[in-house]
Amino acid sequence: MNDLPPFLVAVPLLGSVVALLAGLVRSRSGWPIAVCTALLQTAMAAVLAVRAFGGQPVQYVVGGFSAPFGIELVIDGLSATMVVLVAVVALGVLGYARVAGPRSNAFYATYLLLLAGLSGMSITADVFNMYVFLEITGLAAYALVASGEGGRSARAALKYLLVGTVGASLFLLGIGFAYVATGTLNMADLSAQLAAVGYGSPLVRASFGLLVVGLFVKIAVFPIHTWQPAAYAGAPDSVSALISALVSTIAAYALIRIVFTVFTVEFLAANPFAQTVLVAAAVVSIVAGSVLAVTQREIKRMLAYSSVSQFGLIVGAVAVANGTALTGAMIHLVGHAVMKGGLFLTSGLIADETDARTVDDYRGLAERFPVGSTAFGVLALAMVGVPPAVGFVGKWYIALGAVEARAWPLVAVLLLSTLLTLAYFARVLERIYFRESPDADARAETASDETLVTDGEGDDAGRPPVSTGMRATVVLAAVLAVVLGVAAFEYGQLLEPTIARLLA
User: Fold this and answer.
1) Helix, strand, coil fractions of the chain, as percent rounded to 5
2) Are 260 and 330 in contact (CB under 8 A)?
3) Confidence (pLDDT) at 461
4) How far apart (Å, rounded) are the C-alpha atoms in residues 471 and 479?
5) What is the C-alpha separation between 208 and 190, in angstroms, rounded?
6) Residue 199 gets which letter from DSSP?
7) Could you give the 3-state DSSP secondary structure of residue 268?
């Protein structure tokens, strides 16, 4: 059991190589290889999660060297949550991508490379190793965004590459400052050494600032979020769902690790300005992301700006720095991955089925495509925070944590965020359910023709094929958003020992 953690990285890396080599023999053989790899990854993640939540964290030191000299991998409640989330979401998106595409072996090889990078970031207990996996994740994500047809995807990937490189460079500089100050890279040892050096040291403060800002770029915190709307809107639908659900989520998890495992709450107490900066970043990101989402006409760009706002909630929970808020942050990370990934898949399904890609195109959608309309409606209301969906539980914990900390400005903005989220989703739902399509007869005829579309075949209008697997995936995401909300309070109780150790 203790030897299993490295396979969370090794298995998808091996699957990536196999998919690439298999493409030399048989084209489009990558999907079954990716599915088998993701299934094995999910099984390993589940086994380790049961172990981590059932007792002490699972620890492994690469190469047999003792920590802090060896690269340590740790599976506790937080990292177990992330590896299970990565594996499950990756497997779910594969169900959508089988027909939706892209279908090349190179795509699936890169897909599995991203899975390896995200898993590595989740379980590493070494800051330089986290940087390595951050770069692997970034390079794979840039390539996946560029996998779409046309210049829009290429431009989005280039912008993502340029901005992401700046973020990774800042993160590396922060590691360098920490190493100069302490001479170690292991997170636990680094935490002790930073305390010994003193939280008022300019090197320590500079390291914190660089690491946090570098991760802000990866999370897409306003105003350094500019890569995200272009990347999400320009990528293929399956890629938009994958990176929106996982890439910024794991970066936000890394922020939690850096702030609380490496620098600890004592650093925030000794440097109130750092906590003020986190609060300010959260408030601005929540408000600006929501306002920008309201102004968007294209659905995918609206969802992208929504993510800017939603990750502001996570930064706010980090700034509050108590157990209740951090529990909410973890619940919201899981919930956002399911809800936002599901929304991107649903918007892609709707676009393939009806050619609707803008807010106005969704007029009368409930009559034309009831399955897609229902899934979008459930996921949108879950994102707003309507009980019993998981979006409500995460926000409730974060708001309660802010009240406990007496962070009243943040409490006000957290409550306002629900109204702002409702503002941009309500206008879409109003068009879906309370507007008639301007060309209802033509649309009805088109919808009737599309019911004959089968897996792997397009329609006469040239739209991409729509499969039963694509429909099942979005329905499952909508159901899961509600089920997770029902189970979220029990999950929060399971997290209590891990978060207590994190804040001790």
Assistant:
1) 80, 5, 20
2) no
3) 46
4) 13
5) 12
6) T
7) helix
What does the pLDDT look like over 410-465, one tens digit per residue?
889 888 888 888 988 999 898 888 877 766 545 444 444 443 333 444 444 445 56
Q: How many H-runs (helices) and E-runs (strands) does the chain carry?
A: 20, 2
Pick the closest to residue 345 from 36, 337, 115, 85 (CA basis). 337
CB 137 within 8 A of CB 114: yes
Pairing mode of beta strands 72-75, 58-61: antiparallel
pTM of the model: 0.91
Other Cβ atoms less than 10 A from the Cβ of 496: the count is: 12
How many CA atoms within 13 Å lie on the side-chain side of 319? Answer: 28
Q: What is the DSSP letter of 2?
A: T
Average pLDDT over residues 45-64: 85
DSSP assignment string, 154-194: HHHHHHHHHHHHHHHHHHHHHHHHHHHHHS--BHHHHHHHH
Say which residues have a Cβ less than 8 Å from residue 449's Cβ, sequence separation at least 6: 459, 460
Q: Coil, strand or helix: which one is 149?
A: coil
Which amino acid, residue 140? A
Q: 465 and 457 in contact (C-beta within 8 Å)?
A: yes
Contact 68, 189 (CB under 8 A): yes
Give alpha helix (H) positions in 355-467: 365-368, 370-384, 390-404, 408-434, 440-450
Strand, coil or helix: 124: strand
**What is the average per-residue pLDDT within 16-20?**
91
Which pLDDT tens digit goes with each residue over 316-328? 999 998 989 999 9
Residue 102: asked if its preceding bond is cis (omega within 30°), the reply is yes
Token match 């203790």: residue?
2
The neighbouring-strand residues paired with 73 are 60, 124
The answer to whether the peptide bond before residue 272 is cis (omega within 30 degrees of 0) is no
Q: Tell me the CB-side half-sphere exposure of residue 84, using CA atoms within 13 A.
A: 19
* Cβ contact 375:431 at 8 Å: no
Q: How far is CA 165 from the centre of its chain?
A: 19
Residue 320 to residue 324: CA distance in whole angstroms = 9
Name the token pair of 426: 């309500």
* pLDDT of residue 150 exceeding 80: no
In angstroms, rounded to a whole number, what is the distance separating the alpha carbons of residues 219 and 185?
23
